[in-house]
Amino acid sequence: MPHLGIAIIVFACVFSCALLGLYLHTMLPAHHLGDESVSVIKLTIGLIATMAALVLGLLISSAKSSFDAANAAVVRDATEIILLDRTLAQYGPETQEIRVLLKQGVATGIQKITSGDPAQLASMRSPEELKRGENIQRRLAQLSPNSETQRRLQARAIQIAGDVLAMRELALLQAAGSTPMPLLLTLVLWLCIIFGSFGLFTSPNTTVVITFFLGAISTSIAIFLILEMNTPLGGIVAVSLAPVHEALSILGQ
């Protein structure tokens, strides 16, 4: 489900529970909202709010780590691609075809990531794409060096190509998303209980309804950002591909 759709559902659930609490405030008998009852309810809601804050912090930390890892993978991948191309250039004109394949592969990857199409992004994890990367490694292994210098450059190129492939797979795995849905559902349930209790202790009026509306909006935005950061190669909150674009402009020179 698109992240915006999930955020809208979260907003609807939380805001509806707040309005339900306001309705129950007018319907419950007075002794249900006596001092003793309110004290017990507040203690329970305080415990739930603490757990919700811990889970929210855990999700934010996890999403930030995923985003940072994908960003680091993209930067390192771009650096390794440039190093691979320069190593092949030093080897000699025999590697020209491999350099062309490398540039085409990078251009295709950028096009798929920036397309915004989940299907194209998913296709980057297909066996066919993996074989294209392995094809470059195979062509590097098939080179016939004529000197000690070329042998060293060949070995270096094979090593870099392996690193590039590994970092690419790491970035794609990070982009697949890792938000634990049971944890997210639990958090939303707790938020609904918390907002419902807020309404239960408050007399209905316009200011209170607007406050609940803003609180529900803020909560849904936080969850939306968590989901977006867990898919760092697509969506609104995405890692910058500027290093890869820069690498593409240098390749083949």
Automatic annotation (TrEMBL):
<keyword id="KW-0472">Membrane</keyword>
<keyword id="KW-0812">Transmembrane</keyword>
<keyword id="KW-1133">Transmembrane helix</keyword>
<feature type="transmembrane region" description="Helical">
    <location>
        <begin position="40"/>
        <end position="60"/>
    </location>
</feature>
<protein>
    <submittedName>
        <fullName>DUF4239 domain-containing protein</fullName>
    </submittedName>
</protein>
<feature type="transmembrane region" description="Helical">
    <location>
        <begin position="207"/>
        <end position="227"/>
    </location>
</feature>
<feature type="transmembrane region" description="Helical">
    <location>
        <begin position="183"/>
        <end position="201"/>
    </location>
</feature>
<dbReference type="InterPro" id="IPR025333">
    <property type="entry name" value="DUF4239"/>
</dbReference>
<dbReference type="Pfam" id="PF14023">
    <property type="entry name" value="Bestrophin-like"/>
</dbReference>
<feature type="transmembrane region" description="Helical">
    <location>
        <begin position="7"/>
        <end position="28"/>
    </location>
</feature>
